[in-house]
Write a structure and sequence with these properties.
By secondary structure, this protein is an alpha/beta fold. It has three domains: 232 residues, Metallo-dependent phosphatases (Purple Acid Phosphatase, chain A, domain 2), CATH 3.60.21.10; 70 residues, no CATH class; 50 residues. The longest helix has 21 residues. 30% of the residues are buried. About 10% of the residues have low confidence. It binds manganese (II) ion. The site of manganese (II) ion (MN) has 7 residues, from loops. One of its GO terms (molecular function) is hydrolase activity. InterPro entries: Calcineurin-like_PHP, DNA_Repair-Maintenance_Comp, Metallo-depent_PP-like. This is Calcineurin-like phosphoesterase domain-containing protein.
Length: 361
């Protein structure tokens, strides 16, 4: 990511919270600060998310960042004015693991963008946070209205949350408030909520094996004509769901060969959840252990149904409840319902039969 920022000579790198999955250690901040210092020509703005929230003892509160790094630690929206790149970035940090306040509500957003003085007073009352960098620049901007009117000042929102317990928001509110761009974090799945305007960053890499789909970062350009962003997947590790369609003719050996074949089309960075669907021969035991042992398979899920030979079953269980059940269900006009009733019903009755045949005998 840092390397990309250097190569692209990025003006601005936005980190939308939860840079750490828990409270960062001091040495971890030192380490990341050293990385950030490697790209001094890139302004870096970051906020704390619900995982690395600003605990009273958080090292974020006292940490000295390099010149190009701007940490927005306020609990309500405040701004960092980056005069060199004619950009103001608005944001706030989590002070608790949960925060249900609608800090990105449309009324608040409109107010912060339209009335700099209101924001300034607000800042003095509540935002007196000594570790915030860039406030000096912001003060000039708010005090005397020294916005460079010859060039447009870009307005960016940097946010975190989006579910009921973490700063719920509506993407439309943000687009309509007049921000040029809004970068959000928190939801692991990457998404463009409003094309070119509001994006959810996702995580750079999956945080666990159920974190499916591509992960990476957004990169784009803000110009007078508008914003354009594209997603850049980091192809290091990606979890996918590999569905395998099982049919009753397939032997256990054939199923494992089929899986092996399908897995060959994976990319080297893809790790599979193998999901077996369809109908297996009722007598066949699927080679689940063998599949689980295959390379880059993290999990096997058997969702197949046994394919019963209903005519044979009727003969074998002639005169029993099972035989009558099959006969009645075979008359069911709804095909989907008939299939389900037959498979689940017969399976349940056979399971019971194994416990004691007399029950259906
Ligand atoms: Mn989060």
């Amino acid at each position: 990511m840092i390397e990309q920022a250097r190569r692209q000579q990025a003006d601005l790198l936005l980190i939308a919270g939860d840079l750490f999955h828990r409270q960062p250690l001091k040495r971890e901040l030192k380490e990341i600060a050293a990385w950030f210092a490697e790209i001094p020509d890139t302004e870096i703005v970051l906020i704390a998310g619900n995982h690395d929230y600003l605990h009273p003892k958080s090292y974020y509160r006292s940490f000295e960042w390099p010149e190009n790094v701007h940490f927005i630690g306020t609990r309500d929206l405040s701004a960092v004015s980056l005069e060199r790149i004619h950009t103001t970035v608005w944001g706030c940090s989590f002070w608790n693991q949960e925060d249900t306040r609608a800090v990105y509500h449309r009324d608040i957003l409109q107010k912060v963008l339209q009335n700099a003085n209101t924001v300034k007073n607000h800042r003095e009352a509540e935002y007196d946070v000594p570790f915030m960098r860039g406030t000096g620049a912001f003060e000039r901007f708010a005090d005397s209205g020294q916005v460079d009117h010859r060039r447009r000042n870009f307005q960016i929102l940097l946010g975190h949350g989006g579910d009921d317990r973490h700063h719920p928001f509506r993407a439309n509110d943000i687009a309509e408030a007049g921000f040029d761009y809004a970068a959000f974090g928190h939801i692991h799945k990457v998404a463009q909520l409003i094309p070119g305007k509001v994006v959810m960053a996702g995580s750079l890499e999956p945080t666990d094996c159920n974190d499916f789909g591509p992960h990476g970062f957004w990169m784009g350009e803000l110009t007078e004509r508008g914003t354009s962003v594209s997603f850049y997947p980091i192809k290091k590790c990606e979890y996918i769901q590999q569905e395998i369609n099982v049919t009753p003719e397939l032997s256990a050996y054939a199923v494992s060969e089929l899986v092996r074949q399908e897995l060959q089309s994976r990319k080297p960075y893809q790790i599979s959840h193998v999901i077996l669907r369809g109908y297996r021969d009722a007598e066949t035991e699927l080679p689940l252990d063998e599949i689980a042992e295959m390379e880059r398979v993290v999990r096997v899920v058997d969702e197949t149904e046994p394919d019963y030979q209903f005519d044979l079953l009727k003969q074998k269980y002639d005169g029993t409840l099972l035989q009558k059940y099959i006969e009645v269900m075979e008359q069911c006009p709804n095909l989907e319902l008939r299939k389900k009733a037959l498979y689940y019903g017969v399976q349940a009755m056979l399971d019971t039969a194994e416990e004691g045949r007399e029950r259906i005998g």
